[in-house]
Amino acid sequence: MKDIITIFKNRNYSLLFFAAFTSQLGSIIGISAFMLYLLNRFSEQPFYATMAELMYSLPTLFVFFLVGVFADKMDRQKVAAYADFICVLLSVALIITIYIDWMPLTFFLLFLRSAVSKFFHPAESAMIQGILTKNEYTMAAGLNQMTGSLFMLFGNALGIFIYWNFGIQGAILFDAITYLISAILILTCKINEDIRLPNGKMHWRELSARSIFGDFKEGLAYILDKRLLVYLIIGFFVFGIVNGGLSVMPTYILKYKLAPDTYEQVLIYMGIVFGSSVLVGSVLASVIAKKLKLYQMIIIGLLTSGVFITVTGFSTSVFMFLLLNVTIGLSLPLLNIAIGGWLPRIVDPKMMGRVQGWITPTMMLSQSITLGIIMVTFQKSLTIEGLFFLVGGCIFAVGVFYAIVLPPYGEEGYKDEKVIVELESKHI
């Protein structure tokens, strides 16, 4: 608790933390409400709900070569704030298209808003790296995980509540308000120029296709030069599979197997159960991080969550489904906190934007592939049980892979970048 109080005494961190919180909260509420809207309107065509999820993840593949370069070359504070402001405008446009019932334009605006929002996280993460010490990185990762658990706990339930009472347009208006609050909080920060502009001042007119591509290649070369960094980014690929699967699998198993008539109410209960277990798991993982090496936490989190996600697909009752969600919620924070705390220790602050610019598309690529497979095969060649087996099996396989490749980097190497370099040079 003392560590948490200390980190929040940093005014800039507090503002950035709550800016990210409000921005992400609104997005989650909008996603939850829009999925219910499509499931109610196109009840016999789950294709539309999956497509909506794709509109949130797929845009990354179109802007990933830009987001990292902008975060490293432009003013990080302005990049994050302007991304929020543009999302406000696009949210208002989205409300209009839903009102006139023009679905193609609605999906396009979802796509565009998601693309713009992808510029926020690399810039915000790079600023946080600059204002915290290395000893605070794992604590910050733990706080991010706790925030994520609160989203799971209240986000879906709040999204459903707003949808029931104010409709889909009310939910998207809530989105717009949270983006606006986030932008104001970002602009309120007083961050040193060397953190906002680690590579010096540059006007956007100086950016050219050639320079962007060169910086993009430089980020990739930096990642490939550090084998440990490559391994950690594989972990983010797994996050994408988890996010893609869990964004639709609970809804599908409840609507088409366990509770077809009451699935919306059960989704609220699931959000409370899953979010509570992730919140408890986040606290436990933050304590465990002081006892175990980070690579051990990653391996345990992957293997445990992989097994229980697979078993969840074979649930025969709502109670069994909720109970298995508790075990998944307790295990995932081990993975998230370990990777989130390890990454900033080994990345040069001047390269963090470009590294983040590769992490986000890596996650979104796997998320989009997962959603694409679900969209094409679900209820055709892929059963509900097969869906859970596919996602859980992928996660378990990566856990086995990490159990083989990560131990050489775990002998306190994450505490000293020089040791990491030495380990990499010896690793075969």
**Tally of structural domains:** 1
CATH topology value: Growth Hormone, Chain: A
Overall form? globular
The first-level CATH class name: Mainly Alpha
Pfam families: MFS_1
GO molecular function, one term: transmembrane transporter activity
Organism: Litchfieldia salsa
InterPro entries: MFS (IPR011701), MFS_dom (IPR020846), MFS_trans_sf (IPR036259)
Task: Record keyword descriptors for this entry.
single chain, about 425 residues, mainly alpha, Growth Hormone, Chain: A, 17 helices, globular, MFS, membrane, MFS_trans_sf, transport, cell membrane
Give an overview in words.
- The protein has 428 residues and is mainly alpha-helical.
- It has one domain: Growth Hormone, Chain: A, CATH 1.20.1250.
- Helices cover 82% and strands 0% of the residues.
- It is built from 17 helices and no strands.
- α3 runs antiparallel to α15 and α11 packs antiparallel against α14.
- The longest helix is centred in the middle third of the chain and has 52 residues.
- The C terminus is likely disordered.
- It is found in: Cell membrane.
- It is a multi-pass membrane protein.
- Its main location: membrane.
- Keywords: Cell membrane, Membrane, Transmembrane, Transmembrane helix, Transport.
- GO terms for molecular function: transmembrane transporter activity.
